[in-house]
Specification:
single chain; 241 residues; Rossmann fold; 7-stranded parallel β-sheet; 6 helices; 37% helix; globular; binds nicotinamide-adenine-dinucleotide
């Protein structure tokens, strides 16, 4: 059987783990990122720009690379992102919604058309537990960071945008799904991991590792999930219950 060709947008904390897991198994991975990376099959792009993404798709077509799926785990954000509510200006809010949600829209719209032309495809977009549940502000009480208000707006909208696209592309053999992870460990203080972990259900507790998400991605990009469409798969160790 020929290898799946997977386009991975965002080679960050989670993207790297997905790359490692897919490359090591049944797929050939093509990396897309706004930061320049010294990686094989790397394409420089910017999901916030219609022109940049269109040029990337043109490049794929010129090279006769026919992707089977796209996984969008990019995380566009501005320097002013991440402040507590009182300090978030409307301009900063709007800009972050524009680049993150707008970027995800751009990917779904343009790669939706790309896969429709190919006759088949699967698009996986990243949301978060914070696209589903209200924040648990108690776990941030002792921290110097918070759960940003823009993130709630963006990630909840990604889940509904995904349903819109799945419905819009009905009959074209293009699937749209969302993966919503819980918090992924990245050098967080022990105190935060413990506070966060109070709501995890497994005996391991704490936060997820990026590798905990790769099984769900393998499922969503493959034909094993061919009748899963317009859905939001939550991988959070029961945190949202
Ligand atoms: N890390 C977590 O705890 C967590 C939890 C739940 C959901 N998520 C979601 O998972 C996704 C990945 O998170 P992460 O922690 O790996 O992020 P990250 O910041 O480590 O990596 C994001 C990548 O996206 C790239 N990127 C940013 N703007 C871009 C643009 N305009 N065009 C193309 N590439 C761009 C960055 O260069 C970077 O390589 C995000 O959507 C995030 O909201 C993360």
């Amino acid at each position: 059987m020929s290898k799946l060709k997977v386009g991975l947008i965002g080679y960050g904390l989670i993207g790297k783990a997905i790359h490692e897991s897919l490359e090591g198994s049944s797929a050939e991975v093509f990396i897309f990122d706004i930061a320049t990376m010294n990686q094989p099959n790397f394409f420089h792009t910017d999901i916030t720009s219609h022109e940049a993404l269109a040029a990337t798709i043109l490049e794929l077509n010129k090279k006769n690379i026919k992707l089977d799926s796209i996984v969008n785990c990019s995380y566009p954000r501005t320097k002013s992102y991440g402040k507590k509510l009182e300090d978030v200006t409307i301009d900063s809010f709007n800009e972050n919604v524009s680049i993150h949600l707008g970027g995800y829209f751009n990917v779904m719209k343009q790669f939706g058309a790309y896969f429709k032309a190919l006759g088949k495809g699967s698009i996986v977009s990243f949301s978060s537990v914070y696209g589903i549940n209200a924040p648990r502000f108690d776990i941030y009480e002792k921290e110097n960071f918070t759960m940003p208000v823009e993130y709630a707006a963006i990630k909840s909208a990604v889940i509904h945008l995904n349903k819109y696209m799945a419905s819009y592309f009905k009959g074209s053999n293009v699937r749209f799904n969302v993966l919503s992870p819980g918090g992924v460990f990245s050098n967080h203080e022990d105190s935060f991991v413990q506070s966060y972990g109070k709501y995890s259900l497994s005996s391991r507790g704490g936060m997820l590792d990026p590798q905990d998400l790769t099984g769900a991605i393998k499922f969503l990009v493959s034909d094993e999930s061919k009748f899963v469409n317009g859905q939001n798969l939550i991988v959070d160790d029961g945190w949202t219950l």
